[in-house]
Amino acid sequence: MNDMDGAIRQGLGKETNPSSIVKCYVTYVQDLPNGTERGKFLALDLGGTNFRVLLIELGENNYFHMDSEIFKVPAHIQTGKGTELFDHIAKCLAEFIKKHNLDNKKALPLGFTFSFPLRQVGLTKGYLNSWTKGFNCSGVVDEDVVRLLKEAIKRRKDVEIDVCGILNDTTGTLMSCAWKNPNTKIAVIVGTGCNACYVEKVENAELFDGDKSKPYVIVNTEWGAFGDDGKLDAVRTKYDQEIDEDSLNPGQQRFEKMISGMYMGEIVRLAIVDLANQNKLFEGRLSEQMKTKGAFGTSFVSDIESDKANYRETLKVLSEMGINDPSLVDCANVRYICECVSRRSAHLVSAGLAALLNKMDEKTVTIGVDGSVYRFHPYFHKLMVEKTKQLIKSDIKFD
To answer: Family assignment (predicted)?
Structure first.
């Protein structure tokens, strides 16, 4: 926790940022919603193997209506040319606009949520620092992703869209939560990836070159990179090391790889295979599915931990993985492995949250949390809350 605090402070400093692991990018977002916003807006949310296009309407008396559609990013596009990725996004945007009969005589305002490490230099300009979460499109790193999206839209010549802001998914979560609860000061995503942002005093964000007359700015920590300098080595397992070495970005995003949904199921699978090879599970027998990288999805972890006493879901998952007739002891051990991995994930997030809460030193803070792991794991919220309470100063309250 102290190491995370030090990494965040280093990321905020003008002289220390270039060598910092946790970059703490300023977002240029200084004003939070207050509930009086009105109108219709498009949103594009790109941050994993799927992306969402949304039409949001805000009205009187906290009226909120949202239509959304999920589009896939095919595997060949995730690792292909950057122009192919943005052309695909522009095509899906055009389909959504046509399907919803939106008036396109004037440019439609769009907020672009881009959930990869982003160095922002303004509300509508941001440069990709590095790909994560299995993406590796060429020609995008160190480029302005807003410009790339605008160029792809322009190539189509059939839609008019005004990209009026780019932000990280954590910033989007903080903003949407603040619309309902103005005391929201931190947001965390625990899904395919893991990241956090928070409201920082302008005087502490030394790289911020925007409006200094306003007291606060949202900082996107990009804490997924914490530990890339070896600070996590004492708690990393051989399974973490194997996942890191086999990833598209070895040596990077080590904190995220110990937490997020992209890797949680694979950590469990590696532990199961290791124990079976030691004849401590399934009498040493393994199926081809269980030996296959990526075959044990993170959703299986949630399913197994949702089990009641009869191990019904565990038996179902193991059957899908080609393990038939496991003993009750095997089922108990598989569940225990899942519990250990997910508890560690929740506690690592808690340590990061506690570092932010203690640094901010505000007496009451609302935290916005989103992401598939947080939403669908049966105990993740409880584990996070309990551990965070243990780690923060006694006079700080959060919800």
So the answer is: Belongs to the hexokinase family.
